[in-house]
Every structure is written in structure tokens, then in C-alpha cells.
Amino acid sequence: MSIISSKIFAHRGMWENESEQNTVQAVLKAFLAGFNVEIDVRLNEDKALVTGHDKAQEFDWDEVMECPQRGIIAFHVKEKGLCTQLKGLIESVPYLDYLIFGVPEEEMDLYILFFGKDKVAFEYNAGDDFEKAFNCNNKILWVAELNGERLSAKEIIVLRNQDKKMYFVTQDCHQGDVVLIGIRLRMLQTGFIDGICSDNPLLLSTYA
Fold it and tell me: H or E segment at 135?
């Protein structure tokens, strides 16, 4: 496993079937393989913090947080009103390395107040108004390059000159541009970007 593996996020854990996404097993498998994890979080009917992209699914946080090879957790906020529960979870685990993205615009100030600018990422979809990424107060950007959209080299340099950390969601998550994935891998190798989120972390780490 290359050093680059520690900069790769397994998208919803490591899984083969979609039903395994965002499960404890998928998350632990990614951690034990040396990867970080991106995971979707939301609330269930009892207002407890659980996982799930489109709907809530139960999740054993204790088992994941006790993993001895735990990496960085990127919490993808999927709905409003999660801040207090997420804060409680994070504070309950010493030395948890994490970042948060997908925060609703109207709750961004609250998240930054609770967690700080260096832990809450501004989620930017390539092709949207670039000024939003440029003007945000966050020290981290979570950049999705999907549906054929991408950041130009000039835009990336502008953001890098602001001393922002940048994590990129590769298009392989949505059957996208493999050439662009190679370009982003090269940027990761040189330290020009800080991380990549992928459905295929093992494949990316092999080429890295």
C-alpha cells in the first residue's frame, strides 16, 4: 500500500454491492486497508445520528470509532439539523481526525462556530459559480467534478494560493472521465491537492 493511500477516501466505505454502502462493514474494511472514509450522515425517526444516502440506516458508531486503524472520516451532511448530534459524536472520540462537508448554506455559520473553519469544508460542484468557492471563509474545499465538469488549472491555482485544502471527488464515482482521474492522481502525488474520494480506492492506490 502506497503512502498516497492515506490521502484517498473510500466513497461510502469499501463495497462491492450498493447495499453495502455506508455500512459498518464497508467503513471498517476501508480503514483496515489503510484508506480514509467518506460517509453519508442523517437522522433517524428518533433523531439519532445514523448513516444513509437517501434514507436512514442503523449504524454502530462505537464499533467504527474503536477501530485501531481508523483514518480520517469525511462526514457528508445529508439534511438539516445534524450539527448538535454530530458535535456530540465527535467530542466523544479522542483524537478523531475528521472533516465535514455538505452543510446547508443557512447552517454554515453554526457549523463553523462549533467545529472551526479548518474542519468544515465548502462543497463546490465544478461548473457552479466559481466566486462561491473563491469567497467562502472555509479553509477546506470538497470539490465534486461530475457530469463532465471540471476545475481548470487556473481555478485550482487560484484556490491553492488562498492556502485552502482541496479534496476532489473523482468522476469514477459516476462513470466519468478516467483521464481526469489520472490528472488528479498526479496532483495528489505532487501534493498539489490534498485528497481524492473514489469508489475504487484500491485501483487508485495501485496506480498512485
Answer: helix 130-135
- How many of the other CB atoms lie within 10 Å of CB of 201? 25
**Which letter does DSSP use for residue 10 in this model?**
E
The sign of the dihedral angle between the CA atoms of 164, 121, 62, 199 is: negative
pTM: 0.94
Q: Residue 47: which region, alpha, beta or left (left: phi > 0; alpha: psi -120 to 50)?
A: left
Arch. (CATH architecture) of 3-207? Alpha-Beta Barrel (3.20)
How far apart CA 11 and CA 151 sit, in angstroms, is: 20
**DSSP-assigned beta bridge partners for residue 155:** none
Q: What is the mean pLDDT of residues 141-166?
A: 91
Distance CA 145, CA 174 (A): 10
* HSE (side-chain half, CA atoms, 13 Å) at 193: 25
- Antiparallel, parallel or unpaired: β 8-11 and 121-125: unpaired
Tell me whether strands 36-43 and 49-51 are parallel, antiparallel or unpaired.
antiparallel
Question: Please, which pLDDT band fits residue 171 given cuts at 50, 70 and 90?
Answer: low
Q: What is the DSSP letter of 207?
A: H
Q: Which amino acid is at 101?
A: F
Q: What is the DSSP letter of 139?
A: S
Query: At a CB cut-off of 8 Å and minimum separation 6, what does 6 contact?
Result: 34, 35, 36, 71
